[in-house]
Design a protein that fits this description.
Blueprint: H1 13-22, E1 24-28, E2 33-35, E3 43-49, E4 51-57, E5 63-70, E6 74-75, E7 89-92, E8 96-102, H2 103-112, H3 117-140, H4 143-154, E9 156-158, E10 161-166, H5 169-176, H6 180-192, E11 196-199, E12 202-205
Antiparallel strand pairs: 1-8, 2-7, 3-6, 3-8, 4-5, 4-7, 9-10, 10-12, 11-12
Helix pairs in contact: 5-6
Length: 213
Amino acid sequence: MLDKIPIFSELNEQALAKFSALLVRREFPKNKMIISQGDKSRSLFLIEKGRVKVFTNSEEGKQTTLAFLTEGEFCGELSLLDAEPRSASVVTLEKTVVLQLTYSQFDGLLKKYPEVCYPMFKALTSRIREIDLTICGLTSLDVYGRLVQLLNKEAKNEKGIMITPRLTQLDIAETVGSSREMISRILSELRKGGYVQIDKKRIIINKKLPKNW
C-alpha cells in the first residue's frame, strides 16, 4: 500500500519494507476523533480503509471543513515536520482503518533514508496548491460556484457516472462557507433541473452543472 501513497512512492523496496514494519494498524468506529485541533501528538495516519473529515473550529466555535480523505490518502503529516500543536481535527465518517507512524519512528528512518524528504515535499506542495484553489474559490466565487467546485472535486467515476461520497448538507455548507438552508435550496433547484440526483446522501451528477445559478 505504501508505494501508492505520494510521500512514499519514490522509496526503494528496502526503505518501504522498513517503514511497513513500523506501521501500527488501528481501527476506529464512525464519528471517532483521530486527531484533535490543538493536540501536541506527533503521528502520521495513512488511511487503509474508510473515510474521514478534516476540519477546524474557530475561537467563536464556527466549524470549517477543509477536506474529505479516503483510502490511500493521509493526514497529520505536518506533525512529522515540526512540534507545533495540531492545526486541524480529523474525525471518521464511517468505520475506518488507519496505519499509524509516529514521529520518533519517522525521524529514525529519515536519518537512514533521507530521500523520503523529496516525495514528502512534493505531496505537501500539492496540498498547498489545493488550499490556494480553495481560498481563491472562497474569494472569487459565489456560493453556487463554490458548491460546483466541491462537487466536481469530490465526484468519482463509477461505471461512467460521476458520484460523490456521502455528503450531508451541513458538510457542504461548512466546506463552501454557506448556510445549510442555502445549500438545500441550490440542490433542490439542481434536482428539479435534472442536473443531480441524491441517493443516500450521495450526489449523482447527471449532466454538466450549469455555470451560473
